[in-house]
Each structure stands twice: as structure tokens, then as C-alpha cells.
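PROTEIN DESIGN WORKSHEET
SECTION A - STRUCTURE
LENGTH: 268
C-ALPHA CELLS:
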């Protein structure tokens, strides 16, 4: 690790050896990438997540806002892009750690003693009717916060051909940005299934998008890669960049960071 002086304090520039030095957010449409570039920010959306592995009656999934990133080197990312999209933006991992307080997902063995303990504690929290004290509220907040960054190592998944196969979530190397700091009082951070439908989830996301304090803002030098599927998408992305209200130097810098994803597999 290399030392660097930031704000009068000694910090370390982290040198990642077995993982990527960027965190990438992938998407399926050019419009989503264009929106990120125009806003110079990524807007979290409410997402449904299965919590069936907790084994709590009546609680199969919860919904909360997040933006997901993956920590997968380009040489191994093709299957991830097939599932989540071939457009993406890669941001320096050190910046994400220090500025945005992003957190890797905790992949947990559903049959482990650790999972047994968490299930028992969370079941008590979920079913309780008590009025918790301030100390108990801190414990309950911790359990909920832990759940938002937790995922089973694998689960059964129905694929496009209709066949049920095990899907290994740990292969996604997921990191999450959840805008829990200064969260708006007119929204709930976590929604239970009976509180929202697919339409309701989208409505919550629309309201959240109006709160710019919840966006993941970044600076142009922090962008390491702008990922597109092919040359025609690269041309469209260049047109978007040329239309941004930024300096010529910033435009040239961003254009130089465009990567065509089909070349990842070609170069393997």
C-alpha cells in the first residue's frame, strides 16, 4: 500500500491484488447510462430482495433503495453482463470506500451457526410488539442494517428456459450503496411486501429521485471506465458526452474512458 496525505492525515492508497480496482454498475439500456452522465450521479432505486432464507412466516421479501456494483475483473465479467446488462460505469474503488461509504455484501451460508443466530435474533425483532428502549432500538437498527447487506451464498433460481438451477450469488462480488444517511422523512427506507406492489415500488423510486441528497454523486476524474456493448453504442455515448455542459478537457477525458465490452471476451 502506498501512503498519501489527505486533508492533513495519513491515509493509504490501497493496491488491490485479487480483485478489481474499480466498482462497476451495469445496466441494460443506453438511456440509463446517459442519465448517469447527464446527472453526474447514480440515482438509487427501490429493489425487491428475497429474504425467504430467514424462514419467517409471511416474510418472503423486502424492498429498499440501493445501487449495486460488482467487483469482478473484466476478464471474468461476461456472465454478469449477460444477466445485468452490457452498459456500465466503473468508479475508483478507493473513492467509493472513502467518499460514499459503500459496503460489500456479506454472503452467508444459510446452514451455518452464524445464520442460525441471526435468524433467531431477527425473528424476535420482526414478531415483537414491545416498545423498545433507545438501547434496544440501536440493536434492532443494527439487525436491519445487517440484513440490507446480507445475501445467501446461493439459492434456487428459475432460468429463462424454465429450468430451476442453483444460482451462486457470491460470484457477483456485489457491493451496495444504500442512501440511509439523511434519508428523507417522507419515505420509508424498508418496505414490506404488503406495503407496495411493483407499481408502488416504482412510485417510491420516483419520489426518492427528487431527493438529490440521496444520489451517489461523483467527480469526472473518479470515473475509470464507461462501458458500452459495441461501437454504435460508443458513438451514441460520445454524442451524449459532447452535449454535456463541461469543459473540453473533461469531454476528452470521458471519451478516452469508453470501453467496448465485447472486446473483453475477445481479449481473453
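SECTION B - SEQUENCE
RESIDUE ASSIGNMENT:
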Amino acid at each position: 500500500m502506498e501512503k498519501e496525505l489527505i486533508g492533513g492525515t495519513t491515509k493509504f492508497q490501497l493496491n488491490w491484488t485479487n480483485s478489481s480496482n474499480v466498482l462497476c454498475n451495469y445496466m441494460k439500456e443506453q438511456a440509463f447510462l446517459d442519465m448517469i452522465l447527464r446527472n453526474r450521479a447514480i440515482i438509487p432505486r427501490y429493489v425487491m430482495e428475497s429474504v425467504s432464507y430467514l424462514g419467517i412466516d409471511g416474510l418472503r421479501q423486502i424492498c429498499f433503495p440501493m445501487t449495486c456494483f460488482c467487483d469482478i475483473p473484466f476478464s471474468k465479467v461476461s456472465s454478469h453482463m449477460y444477466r445485468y446488462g452490457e452498459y456500465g460505469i466503473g468508479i475508483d474503488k478507493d473513492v467509493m470506500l472513502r467518499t460514499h461509504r459503500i459496503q460489500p455484501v456479506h454472503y452467508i451460508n444459510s446452514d451455518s451457526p452464524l445464520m442460525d443466530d441471526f435468524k433467531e435474533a431477527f425473528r424476535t425483532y420482526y414478531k415483537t410488539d414491545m416498545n423498545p428502549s433507545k438501547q434496544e432500538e440501536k440493536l434492532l437498527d443494527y439487525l436491519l442494517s445487517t440484513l440490507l447487506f446480507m445475501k445467501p451464498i446461493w439459492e434456487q433460481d428459475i432460468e429463462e428456459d424454465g429450468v430451476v438451477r442453483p444460482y451462486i450469488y457470491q460470484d457477483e462480488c456485489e457491493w451496495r450503496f444504500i442512501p440511509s444517511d439523511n434519508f428523507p422523512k417522507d419515505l420509508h427506507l424498508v418496505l414490506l411486501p404488503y406495503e407496495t406492489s411493483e407499481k408502488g415500488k416504482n412510485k417510491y423510486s420516483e419520489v426518492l429521485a427528487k431527493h438529490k441528497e440521496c444520489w451517489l454523486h461523483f467527480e469526472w476524474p473518479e470515473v475509470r471506465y464507461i462501458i458500452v456493448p459495441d461501437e454504435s453504442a460508443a458513438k451514441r455515448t460520445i454524442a451524449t458526452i459532447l452535449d454535456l455542459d463541461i469543459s473540453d478537457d473533461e469531454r476528452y477525458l470521458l471519451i478516452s474512458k469508453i470501453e467496448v465490452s465485447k472486446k473483453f471476451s475477445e481479449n481473453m
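SECTION C - NOTES
Residues 113-127 form the longest helix (15 residues).
The CA atoms of residues 169 and 208 lie 27 Å apart.
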